[in-house]
Amino acid sequence: MTGWSTADIPRQRGRTAVITGATGGLGYETALALARAGANVVLTGRNGAKGQDALARIRAQLPDAAVTYETLDLASLASVADFAARFAASHDALDLLINNAAVMALPKRQVTSDGFEMQFGTNYLGHYALTAHLLPQLRRGQNTRVVNLSSLAHRTGAISFADLQSQRAYVPWRAYCQSKLAMLMFALELQRRSARNGWGIMSNAAHPGYARTELIPNGPGTDSLSWRLGRYLQPFMSHSAAAGALPTLFAATSPAAEPGGYYGPDWFYELKGPPVPARIMPQARDTVVAEQLWDVSAMLTGVSFDQVATAA
């Protein structure tokens, strides 16, 4: 795995990939690399103008790329269900789902259209519902993989069932850490359930380290301490969005990636560098909490994997 790069991505021709949050940053770089490898890539995002711009940029580099854009707002369960229905109407199978989109450390508590705290709702619950809705297509895919984007922030995360929506106390970073821990736990639990139920899905996770994207200015903002420290440390501690996408691409395509694996950069504190197996904190491996989170998520979103699997 040493020095793994986009040159090591196996040919993806004939494979269909859906990437959330693909109009910029990590999602865009992931989409570009998969399109270059020959995949049929569906970019999703909530801003149509940015979506069309992303398509134009990819086609400028890859005129023959099989890329499309679909609107998907993970902060709306109705939008998630609508996208899944449109996708099912036009695609019998899905080979690769990359749950990438996220918001980070919003200074003030906001809620989704369904009343969920914005980070927990967008980063986690929206992806849980999307994956469940797409289960029939994923089960019909070839060598199907689902990759969840977690973060170094999962290391200090905890699932607070007593206050999942941060209604009692909203602390921006605590809410973000919880959402990213939830994403890693979701990836591991999905793999366990896929193996147990014969769904044929390989589920794993990745994190980008410290990648230079718009996540901070679109979240805590450029006046925040994290932004000011980040600007100072960037030349030494960070890497580009393209480099930050490598762990995701490894998890999504490499024959060496493992079911239930977690991948991140190889440098100090997993901040930058080529992908290697990443550290999973003990709380992410708590199967009792993972099962409770799974059940609570089904209740909150109104989407049950078991019911979808049975109906399929």
Characteristics:
single chain, 312 residues, alpha/beta, eight-stranded mixed β-sheet, two-stranded parallel sheet, 10 strands
What does this structure look like?
The structure is a single chain. The chain is α/β, with parallel strands linked by helices and 312 residues long. The chain has 11 helices and 10 strands. Strands 3-2-1-4-5-6-9-10 form an 8-stranded mixed β-sheet, with helices on both faces. The termini are far apart. The mean pLDDT is 93.
Rg (C-alpha, Å): 18 Å
* Main structural class: alpha/beta
- Distinct helical segment count: 11
Question: Roughly how much helix do the residues carry, as a percent range?
Answer: 40-55%
Overall pLDDT score = 93
Biggest sheet features? 8 strands, mixed
Taking the alpha carbons of the first and last residues, their distance comes to: 37 Å
List low-confidence stretches. Answer: none
What is the approximate shape? globular
User: Total number of β-strand segments?
Assistant: 10
> What is the strand content?
5-15%
Q: Can I get a quick summary?
A:
Helices cover 43% and strands 13% of the residues. By secondary structure, it is an alpha/beta fold.
Topology readout:
Elements: E1 16-19, H1 25-36, E2 40-45, H2 48-61, E3 66-71, H3 77-90, E4 96-99, H4 118-133, H5 135-139, E5 145-149, H6 172-197, E6 202-206, E7 211-212, H7 225-237, E8 239-240, H8 241-244, H9 246-253, E9 262-265, E10 275-277, H10 287-301, H11 305-311
Parallel strand pairs: 1-2, 1-4, 2-3, 4-5, 5-6, 6-9, 7-8
Antiparallel strand pairs: 9-10
Helix pairs in contact: 3-4, 4-6, 4-10, 6-10
